[in-house]
Design goal:
Layout (H helix, E strand, L loop, with lengths): L3 E3 L11 H13 L3 E3 L4 E4 L3 E4 L4 E3 L13
Parallel strand pairs: 1-2
Antiparallel strand pairs: 3-4, 4-5
Amino acid sequence: VRMVLIHSGKRILPEVSESLSAYALQKLMSRGIEVLLETRVLGRTSHSVRLSSGEELSADTFVWAAGTAPS
């Protein structure tokens, strides 16, 4: 199973300190999760995800989670 975390920001968890963000990033990567920063999802087909970098990832399962603040 390939897991890719796509985040539009310069770092994950921007609401916490930079050191905690870096620690979380390292933990994710040490567990085999690929992290793409400063990247957005532009579209999705039944078998792929198109990214703002121009890359297209093969994906049969796609999970979208957005927002960290209450509305």
